[in-house]
Automatic annotation (TrEMBL):
Keywords: Hydrolase. It comes from the Bacteria. Pfam families: Asparaginase (PF00710), Asparaginase_C (PF17763). SUPFAM superfamilies: Glutaminase/Asparaginase. PROSITE patterns: ASN_GLN_ASE_3 (PS51732). One of its GO terms (molecular function) is asparaginase activity. The keyword Cell cycle does not apply. Its EC number is 3.5.1.1. Substrate binds at residues 51, 84-85. The active site is at residue 11. Belongs to the asparaginase 1 family. This is Asparaginase. InterPro entries: AsnASE_II, Asp/glu_Ase-like_sf, Asparaginase/glutaminase-like, Asparaginase_C, L-asparaginase_C, L-asparaginase_N, L-asparaginase_N_sf.
Length: 297
Protein backbone atom coordinates (compact mmCIF):
# COMPACT_ATOMS: atom_id res chain seq x y z
CA UNK A 1 0.00 0.00 0.00
CA UNK A 2 1.24 3.46 -0.82
CA UNK A 3 0.38 7.03 0.02
CA UNK A 4 0.16 9.48 -2.87
CA UNK A 5 1.33 13.04 -2.26
CA UNK A 6 -0.12 15.69 -4.57
CA UNK A 7 1.71 19.01 -4.63
CA UNK A 8 -0.17 22.19 -5.53
CA UNK A 9 2.35 24.80 -4.37
CA UNK A 10 2.03 27.05 -1.31
CA UNK A 11 4.56 28.09 1.31
CA UNK A 12 5.60 24.49 1.94
CA UNK A 13 7.04 24.41 -1.60
CA UNK A 14 8.34 27.99 -1.61
CA UNK A 15 11.79 29.51 -1.45
CA UNK A 16 12.96 33.13 -1.66
CA UNK A 17 13.69 34.58 -5.06
CA UNK A 18 16.36 37.20 -5.83
CA UNK A 19 14.12 39.96 -4.40
CA UNK A 20 13.41 38.01 -1.21
CA UNK A 21 9.81 37.20 -2.20
CA UNK A 22 8.46 33.69 -1.61
CA UNK A 23 7.52 31.68 -4.70
CA UNK A 24 6.72 27.96 -5.06
CA UNK A 25 9.76 26.17 -6.48
CA UNK A 26 9.93 22.66 -4.96
CA UNK A 27 8.40 19.63 -6.64
CA UNK A 28 6.38 16.93 -4.94
CA UNK A 29 9.37 14.56 -5.13
CA UNK A 30 11.58 17.15 -3.42
CA UNK A 31 9.01 17.73 -0.68
CA UNK A 32 8.73 14.02 0.04
CA UNK A 33 12.51 13.57 0.02
CA UNK A 34 12.90 16.35 2.58
CA UNK A 35 10.29 15.10 5.07
CA UNK A 36 12.01 11.91 6.20
CA UNK A 37 9.02 9.58 5.91
CA UNK A 38 9.59 5.83 5.95
CA UNK A 39 6.30 5.10 4.16
CA UNK A 40 6.08 4.07 0.54
CA UNK A 41 5.07 7.27 -1.23
CA UNK A 42 4.28 8.28 -4.78
CA UNK A 43 4.49 11.97 -5.60
CA UNK A 44 2.77 13.98 -8.33
CA UNK A 45 2.58 17.67 -9.18
CA UNK A 46 -0.64 19.29 -10.38
CA UNK A 47 0.06 22.99 -9.78
CA UNK A 48 2.59 25.43 -8.36
CA UNK A 49 0.41 28.18 -6.94
CA UNK A 50 0.05 30.53 -4.07
CA UNK A 51 -3.25 29.30 -2.68
CA UNK A 52 -4.80 32.76 -3.04
CA UNK A 53 -4.89 31.84 -6.76
CA UNK A 54 -6.58 28.47 -6.17
CA UNK A 55 -9.73 29.02 -8.21
CA UNK A 56 -12.68 26.74 -8.87
CA UNK A 57 -10.97 25.35 -11.98
CA UNK A 58 -8.05 24.16 -9.85
CA UNK A 59 -10.44 22.75 -7.24
CA UNK A 60 -12.21 20.79 -10.00
CA UNK A 61 -8.86 19.42 -11.15
CA UNK A 62 -7.86 18.41 -7.64
CA UNK A 63 -11.19 16.68 -7.05
CA UNK A 64 -10.75 14.71 -10.29
CA UNK A 65 -7.16 13.70 -9.51
CA UNK A 66 -8.05 12.52 -5.99
CA UNK A 67 -11.01 10.55 -7.32
CA UNK A 68 -8.85 8.86 -9.97
CA UNK A 69 -6.14 7.99 -7.45
CA UNK A 70 -8.62 6.35 -5.10
CA UNK A 71 -9.72 4.00 -7.87
CA UNK A 72 -6.39 2.23 -7.21
CA UNK A 73 -6.82 -0.35 -4.47
CA UNK A 74 -3.12 -0.15 -3.63
CA UNK A 75 -3.46 3.46 -2.45
CA UNK A 76 -3.97 3.70 1.31
CA UNK A 77 -4.61 7.46 1.30
CA UNK A 78 -3.89 10.76 -0.40
CA UNK A 79 -2.01 13.81 0.88
CA UNK A 80 -2.39 17.24 -0.71
CA UNK A 81 0.22 19.89 -0.02
CA UNK A 82 -1.43 23.28 -0.29
CA UNK A 83 -1.03 26.91 0.64
CA UNK A 84 -2.64 27.91 3.91
CA UNK A 85 -4.62 30.93 2.71
CA UNK A 86 -7.35 28.85 1.08
CA UNK A 87 -6.61 25.43 2.54
CA UNK A 88 -9.84 25.37 4.57
CA UNK A 89 -11.92 26.06 1.45
CA UNK A 90 -10.19 23.39 -0.65
CA UNK A 91 -10.45 20.89 2.20
CA UNK A 92 -14.21 21.39 2.40
CA UNK A 93 -14.54 21.21 -1.40
CA UNK A 94 -12.92 17.77 -1.29
CA UNK A 95 -14.87 16.70 1.79
CA UNK A 96 -18.27 17.45 0.25
CA UNK A 97 -17.70 14.86 -2.50
CA UNK A 98 -15.58 12.36 -0.55
CA UNK A 99 -17.32 9.04 0.09
CA UNK A 100 -14.28 6.73 0.24
CA UNK A 101 -13.22 5.22 3.56
CA UNK A 102 -9.61 6.08 2.81
CA UNK A 103 -8.40 9.46 4.04
CA UNK A 104 -7.53 12.59 2.13
CA UNK A 105 -5.20 14.78 4.19
CA UNK A 106 -4.20 18.38 3.46
CA UNK A 107 -1.10 19.99 4.86
CA UNK A 108 1.24 22.89 4.25
CA UNK A 109 3.57 25.21 6.08
CA UNK A 110 3.86 28.65 7.59
CA UNK A 111 7.61 28.89 6.97
CA UNK A 112 9.20 28.37 3.54
CA UNK A 113 11.35 25.42 2.59
CA UNK A 114 14.59 27.44 2.77
CA UNK A 115 13.86 28.80 6.26
CA UNK A 116 16.45 27.81 8.90
CA UNK A 117 13.70 25.91 10.74
CA UNK A 118 11.01 24.97 8.20
CA UNK A 119 7.79 23.45 9.55
CA UNK A 120 6.79 21.84 6.26
CA UNK A 121 8.78 18.60 6.56
CA UNK A 122 7.24 17.66 9.93
CA UNK A 123 3.78 18.62 8.74
CA UNK A 124 4.14 16.50 5.60
CA UNK A 125 5.58 13.55 7.51
CA UNK A 126 2.63 13.67 9.92
CA UNK A 127 0.14 13.99 7.08
CA UNK A 128 1.60 10.93 5.37
CA UNK A 129 1.26 8.95 8.60
CA UNK A 130 -2.36 10.09 8.92
CA UNK A 131 -3.05 9.07 5.31
CA UNK A 132 -1.55 5.65 5.94
CA UNK A 133 -3.42 4.91 9.17
CA UNK A 134 -6.68 6.90 9.36
CA UNK A 135 -10.09 5.57 8.30
CA UNK A 136 -13.65 6.89 7.96
CA UNK A 137 -12.98 10.49 8.99
CA UNK A 138 -13.52 12.25 5.69
CA UNK A 139 -11.09 14.91 4.55
CA UNK A 140 -8.80 16.17 7.29
CA UNK A 141 -6.01 18.70 7.73
CA UNK A 142 -2.82 17.81 9.57
CA UNK A 143 -0.92 20.89 10.74
CA UNK A 144 1.45 21.70 13.60
CA UNK A 145 0.87 18.30 15.18
CA UNK A 146 -2.93 18.58 15.15
CA UNK A 147 -5.34 16.68 12.93
CA UNK A 148 -8.57 18.58 12.29
CA UNK A 149 -11.67 17.91 10.19
CA UNK A 150 -12.30 19.97 7.08
CA UNK A 151 -15.77 21.16 8.09
CA UNK A 152 -15.62 24.27 10.26
CA UNK A 153 -11.88 24.75 9.74
CA UNK A 154 -10.59 28.32 9.87
CA UNK A 155 -7.17 29.90 9.46
CA UNK A 156 -6.78 32.18 12.47
CA UNK A 157 -3.08 33.12 12.36
CA UNK A 158 -1.17 34.98 9.66
CA UNK A 159 2.31 33.77 10.62
CA UNK A 160 2.10 31.55 13.74
CA UNK A 161 2.85 27.86 13.31
CA UNK A 162 -0.48 26.63 14.74
CA UNK A 163 -2.49 28.48 12.12
CA UNK A 164 -5.77 26.54 12.13
CA UNK A 165 -8.63 26.01 14.51
CA UNK A 166 -12.31 25.07 14.40
CA UNK A 167 -15.08 27.66 14.47
CA UNK A 168 -17.28 25.60 16.79
CA UNK A 169 -16.93 23.85 20.12
CA UNK A 170 -17.16 20.38 18.62
CA UNK A 171 -16.61 18.36 15.48
CA UNK A 172 -19.46 19.13 13.11
CA UNK A 173 -21.50 16.34 11.52
CA UNK A 174 -20.63 15.71 7.87
CA UNK A 175 -23.44 15.72 5.33
CA UNK A 176 -23.74 12.81 2.93
CA UNK A 177 -21.26 13.18 0.07
CA UNK A 178 -22.67 14.40 -3.24
CA UNK A 179 -21.47 13.37 -6.72
CA UNK A 180 -18.82 15.78 -7.97
CA UNK A 181 -19.84 18.28 -10.63
CA UNK A 182 -17.75 21.07 -12.17
CA UNK A 183 -17.59 24.22 -10.05
CA UNK A 184 -15.80 26.35 -12.63
CA UNK A 185 -18.09 29.08 -13.87
CA UNK A 186 -20.33 29.16 -10.79
CA UNK A 187 -20.41 32.84 -9.80
CA UNK A 188 -20.71 33.38 -6.06
CA UNK A 189 -19.12 36.51 -4.61
CA UNK A 190 -18.62 37.21 -0.92
CA UNK A 191 -19.65 40.65 0.32
CA UNK A 192 -18.73 41.72 3.81
CA UNK A 193 -21.05 43.90 5.83
CA UNK A 194 -20.02 46.79 8.06
CA UNK A 195 -21.89 48.99 10.48
CA UNK A 196 -24.17 51.35 8.57
CA UNK A 197 -23.36 49.81 5.18
CA UNK A 198 -25.29 51.17 2.20
CA UNK A 199 -26.68 49.20 -0.73
CA UNK A 200 -24.03 50.21 -3.29
CA UNK A 201 -22.07 46.95 -3.41
CA UNK A 202 -25.18 44.77 -3.64
CA UNK A 203 -26.71 46.95 -6.34
CA UNK A 204 -23.46 46.97 -8.35
CA UNK A 205 -23.24 43.17 -8.59
CA UNK A 206 -23.19 41.67 -12.11
CA UNK A 207 -25.36 38.61 -12.81
CA UNK A 208 -24.54 36.02 -10.15
CA UNK A 209 -25.59 32.48 -9.28
CA UNK A 210 -25.59 33.08 -5.54
CA UNK A 211 -24.23 35.30 -2.81
CA UNK A 212 -22.47 34.79 0.48
CA UNK A 213 -23.03 37.67 2.88
CA UNK A 214 -20.35 37.97 5.57
CA UNK A 215 -22.58 39.61 8.15
CA UNK A 216 -21.99 41.05 11.60
CA UNK A 217 -22.61 39.22 14.85
CA UNK A 218 -24.93 36.24 14.59
CA UNK A 219 -26.00 37.15 11.07
CA UNK A 220 -27.13 40.77 10.74
CA UNK A 221 -26.51 43.64 8.34
CA UNK A 222 -27.63 47.27 8.18
CA UNK A 223 -31.18 48.03 7.13
CA UNK A 224 -30.11 49.50 3.78
CA UNK A 225 -27.92 46.53 2.89
CA UNK A 226 -30.64 44.18 4.09
CA UNK A 227 -33.20 45.78 1.78
CA UNK A 228 -30.85 45.28 -1.19
CA UNK A 229 -30.30 41.63 -0.23
CA UNK A 230 -34.07 41.18 0.04
CA UNK A 231 -34.41 42.24 -3.60
CA UNK A 232 -31.93 39.52 -4.61
CA UNK A 233 -33.85 36.93 -2.62
CA UNK A 234 -37.14 37.95 -4.23
CA UNK A 235 -35.50 37.45 -7.65
CA UNK A 236 -34.60 33.90 -6.65
CA UNK A 237 -30.87 34.41 -6.04
CA UNK A 238 -29.74 32.07 -3.24
CA UNK A 239 -28.09 33.90 -0.35
CA UNK A 240 -26.11 32.33 2.49
CA UNK A 241 -25.40 34.43 5.55
CA UNK A 242 -22.07 33.81 7.31
CA UNK A 243 -20.42 35.97 9.96
CA UNK A 244 -17.20 37.94 10.24
CA UNK A 245 -16.93 36.75 13.86
CA UNK A 246 -14.27 33.99 13.98
CA UNK A 247 -16.08 31.62 16.33
CA UNK A 248 -19.66 30.63 16.87
CA UNK A 249 -22.76 29.83 14.88
CA UNK A 250 -24.90 32.05 12.68
CA UNK A 251 -28.42 32.12 14.15
CA UNK A 252 -31.27 34.18 12.76
CA UNK A 253 -32.62 35.95 15.84
CA UNK A 254 -32.98 39.66 15.05
CA UNK A 255 -35.69 41.53 13.19
CA UNK A 256 -35.54 44.75 11.20
CA UNK A 257 -34.73 45.07 7.51
CA UNK A 258 -31.20 43.73 7.95
CA UNK A 259 -31.80 41.28 10.78
CA UNK A 260 -31.10 37.61 10.28
CA UNK A 261 -34.66 36.65 11.18
CA UNK A 262 -36.03 38.93 8.46
CA UNK A 263 -33.57 37.70 5.84
CA UNK A 264 -34.28 34.11 6.82
CA UNK A 265 -38.02 34.63 6.38
CA UNK A 266 -37.27 35.71 2.79
CA UNK A 267 -35.23 32.59 2.08
CA UNK A 268 -31.69 33.38 3.14
CA UNK A 269 -29.84 30.43 4.65
CA UNK A 270 -27.59 30.57 7.74
CA UNK A 271 -24.07 29.27 7.26
CA UNK A 272 -24.03 27.72 10.72
CA UNK A 273 -20.41 27.29 11.77
CA UNK A 274 -18.99 27.62 8.25
CA UNK A 275 -16.84 30.64 7.46
CA UNK A 276 -17.78 32.79 4.49
CA UNK A 277 -15.14 31.05 2.37
CA UNK A 278 -16.39 27.58 3.27
CA UNK A 279 -20.01 28.68 2.83
CA UNK A 280 -19.17 29.81 -0.71
CA UNK A 281 -17.73 26.37 -1.50
CA UNK A 282 -20.79 24.64 -0.03
CA UNK A 283 -23.20 26.83 -2.00
CA UNK A 284 -21.23 26.39 -5.23
CA UNK A 285 -21.22 22.61 -4.77
CA UNK A 286 -24.95 22.59 -4.10
CA UNK A 287 -25.74 24.67 -7.18
CA UNK A 288 -23.42 22.60 -9.39
CA UNK A 289 -24.91 19.30 -8.26
CA UNK A 290 -28.53 20.41 -8.01
CA UNK A 291 -29.00 19.60 -4.31
CA UNK A 292 -30.66 21.81 -1.74
CA UNK A 293 -27.94 24.16 -0.39
CA UNK A 294 -29.33 23.69 3.11
CA UNK A 295 -28.18 20.04 3.01
CA UNK A 296 -24.50 21.04 2.64
CA UNK A 297 -24.38 23.94 5.13
Amino acid sequence: MSVVVISSGGTIASTKDARGALVPTLSADELVASCGTTRHVRAIDIASLDSSSMGLREVDLLRAVVRDLLRDGDVSGVVVTHGTDSMAETALALDLVHSDRRPVVLTGAMRPADHPNPDGPANLRGAIEAAATTHSRGVIVHFAGATLPARGLLKTQTTAEDAFTLTGPRVLPRPMAVPPAPLEGVRIPIIRAWAGADDALINALPPIDGLVLEALGSGNVSAEMGEAVAKLLRRGVPVVVATSVPYGEVSFAYGGAGGGSTLGSLGALPAGYLSAGQARIALATALATGVNPRSLL
